[in-house]
Every structure is written in structure tokens, then in C-alpha cells.
User: Fold this.
Amino acid sequence: MRLALTIGRRGQGRTAPNPAVGCVIVKDGRVVGRGWTQPGGRPHAETQALLQAGQAAYGATAYVTLEPCAHHGQTPPCADALVAAKVARVVVATQDSDPRVSGAGLEILRAAGITVDVGVCAEVAQADHAGFFLRTELGRPFVTMKLASSFDGRIATGTGESQWITGPDARKMVHLMRARHDAVMVGGGTARQDDPSLTVRGIGDVSQPARVIVSRRLDVPLMSSLARTAREVPVILCHGRDADQMLQDTWRELGAVLLPCAAQGGHLDPLDVLRNLASHGLTRVFCEGGSALAASLIEADLVDQLVGFTAGVTIGAEGLPNIGALGLGKLGDAARFSLLETRPVGPDLYHCWTRER
Assistant:
């Protein structure tokens, strides 16, 4: 199952809205087939593994990181494919939460006389598929917030200089993280000030995540890198419903996708933004700030994972904070996250936290 989980992660950032599943088929102590969900969400992992296994699948054990699908979509159900291959046993990490599948895939297997075990490495599988589960159950994607800052929590000097606070090793790791998400998201202020490309670079030929800009007024420069490349790498603009119609038309002509979102207190409602992104098929969003967007997501309790890169440099109080004002009056009201991992990355410190429930 650990192997199935590992190879399943190869699909992260490439399979939305489908989950990135891994499947390993074992017979007589030997791996005879393995597969993972392919780009675009099809073929599914089980189909790939069965194709590789061929006749060796007969009487074998299949390890799958998510309950095999039971519904007819663009492809036949994977549960039926496992039955047709006459596997003897299926070990499932975690049950599917999609109401079209939940429990039904397991019942198809059991009805065919196949031994089914559920719950092996369940916690790891639930973390890997968290984006798919959140979209299915709550109608929003999984949100990872990345903050690269100085030791004193600043992302730029008082004059706005920010390149580069962290070193090349940390920046390369960020590109690897981008590649495992469906979209990279920033606020309009960051798009205006930094003119970012938000693409994955320096790690080979990989699928590019969509680039999401959250800008109520839609006032992202029309000569920006994002505008120039909107037909090459997807750009999604989350904007207010009252944004200038001429700007909306211009961005559409440039190739961008526009998602009108509800406003809240002069800013876009972060939950409505995420629900719109989920409706567009996104399951995993990598948010890179800026400080106002970070604050709005944290205040709305919509950050599932925090990733920090801290550099051994101090900028001072005049610098720009990595998170904007939250209006907290009591420490007990502050969002709490639990530490998952920390380690040095070049001269910087990487730390990853998960939201406490």
C-alpha cells in the first residue's frame, strides 16, 4: 500500500477533478502491475495496473489507495474491471466519499466473492486525497498556504523589495510543490506589484497548474506576464460581480477564465472564491499570498496546510508582514496549526503545519 500511495502522488496536480489514485497488483509475492491516475483523470489507476498485469491479475491481490469507482462515467467502473480480471483480494486504503461510489464499489467486489479489506494506511490516504474529499463533501478545494519570509515574518522591505529573501534551494522546492497542485493562487496586489509568472520552472517538462488571481476590481495590468501568457498557461480571474465590463471582456479576449464571486466587506468572500474554483474542477490550490489574501483565508478558517520557508535575515517592523491584519482581540481566537515536519533547505528552514480541528 505504501508503494501504491507513492506512485499515486505522481498524479497530484494533473488529475483534477478526479482523485490521484495509485494501484499495485501483487501475485505470489511479486508486483505484476502498477498504475496511477493519468493526466486529465483517465485512465484510472486500476485500469493501468490491470493492463500491465494482464493474465497475472487472476487470483492476485490489488492494493488501491481509494475505493474503486462503481459508476459509469466516461469509462466503465473500476470495480467491474477488477471483478472481470478475477482478482482474489482487494485491499483499499480508504472509502470514497463521492455519493455515486461510497460503499458501492466495495459491495460490487464482495458480491463477486472477492475478499475486501479496508483501512490499510487510511490516514495517509485521506491526507493524499484531501482535496478530492473536500470538493466532494464541502464544495471547496484543499488549500495549502505557502509563506516565504524573513526570521521576523516579513515578505518584503518597506520599499517593496522581496527578491530574494529565501535561497535557490527553497525556491526549487516551491516549484516542486506548485507542480503537485491544480492551481497557484495570489491576490491582486501581488500580481500588480511583482508581475509574477506563477509557472513551474527548473524541474523539467511538467504540467503547468492554472494561475488564479483574486482581484475584486480586476485591476491586474493588461501588459503583465499573466496577460501575455494566458493562452499558453491557464489564467483564472476571481473578481467582483461589479468589476468593469470592459476589463472583463478584454481579459476574456486574452484567453483568461473569469469567475465572478461575491463580495464581503469590500473584499471578495474567500469561501465563495474557493467554491467557484471547486466548481471549475480544482481540488488542490497552492496559495502564495500576499498578506491580505492570506489574512482573509486564515480569518475564514479555510487554510488546510501551512508551508513556511524562513530565512536567517531580519527586515524590521517597516517591512511588509507575511499575513495582514486579523483583528484578533484574544490569543484564544487565533487559528492553531500542528507541526508535521521541519528541516533545513539550503540556508533556510522549511516547516509544514496542518490545521487543528
Notes: Residues 168-179 form the longest helix (12 residues).
